[in-house]
Write a structure and sequence with these properties.
39% of the residues lie in helices and 26% in strands. By secondary structure, it is α/β, with parallel strands linked by helices. Strands 6-3-2-7-9-11 form a six-stranded mixed beta sheet, sandwiched between helices. Strands 1-12-10-8 form a four-stranded mixed beta sheet, with no helix packed on it. It is globular.
């Protein structure tokens, strides 16, 4: 069953329609991308209301390469603080164990990275299409915590699995996880193997038109190309 959150802070009809578009496996690539962008804008607006004093020069936007041009770009637009410092990562996924129920234990090593320098990072904004096993976010956070030493950490995803937040909290000591603030629109409590139901309608890479793991890691987001 899906539980909605934070709909009162945005356009409820637009948010629900965009979530439905993600869950619908028949949604075409362009509409799927646009649904992520729209949800990113709505998440960014909530972020702006909760971190009014945040300044662009002291805020870093963090995402996987496949989330950059749609979801993360939407968050940056909705946040409305101008261009933020950015870290973008190309992750792979490796299964290290399969449980009896079919769920898989995965790790997400970073294959490539684009990281901008930031002085006095006060807010780290991590954007993810869905928080489920939390391995990608854990990898990104582990890499960045020592480099940026942020005062606050906002973790945004349109959809989260019910165990996603507690799983991620357990991965870090209290001095780190006490800085976490999660913002989402939908929490799902069903899963088939590693796929959250209804979630985001399956594996995000092909649905965004980026192909499989290998081909999506050759894609350079426009967000990065503009900076380079």
């Amino acid at each position: 069953m899906r539980k909605f959150e934070n709909l009162q802070y945005g356009d409820e009809a637009v948010i629900k329609a965009s979530l439905d578009a993600l869950a619908d496996k028949n949604t075409n690539v362009n509409d799927y991308r646009e649904a992520f962008r729209t949800l990113g804008v709505e998440l960014g607006k909530i972020l702006a209301s909760e971190y009014r004093m945040a300044l662009a020069d002291h805020t870093m936007l963090v995402c996987a390469s496949e989330d950059a041009d749609w979801l993360a770009a939407g968050v940056e637009s909705g946040f409305g603080k101008g261009e933020l410092k950015k870290s973008v990562y190309w992750n792979s996924r490796e299964v290290i164990h399969t449980n009896e129920d079919g769920s898989k234990v995965e790790i997400s090593p970073i294959e490539k990275a684009y990281e901008e320098p930031i002085n006095d990072c006060r807010l780290l904004v991590i954007v993810k299409s869905i928080i489920s096993t939390s391995c990608v976010v854990k990898t990104q956070l582990t890499r960045l915590i020592g480099k940026t030493t942020p005062d606050q950490i906002a973790i945004l995803a349109p959809v989260m699995y019910k165990d996603g937040v507690p799983n991620l909290m357990r991965e870090f000591p209290e001095e780190i996880n006490s800085k976490f603030h999660f913002i989402t629109f939908a929490v799902d409590d069903e899963r088939e193997g590693n796929e959250v139901i209804p979630g985001i309608g399956g594996m995000v890479y092909p649905r965004l038109g980026l192909g499989n793991m290998e081909t999506k890691n050759r894609y350079v987001p426009e967000m990065v190309l503009r900076k380079m």
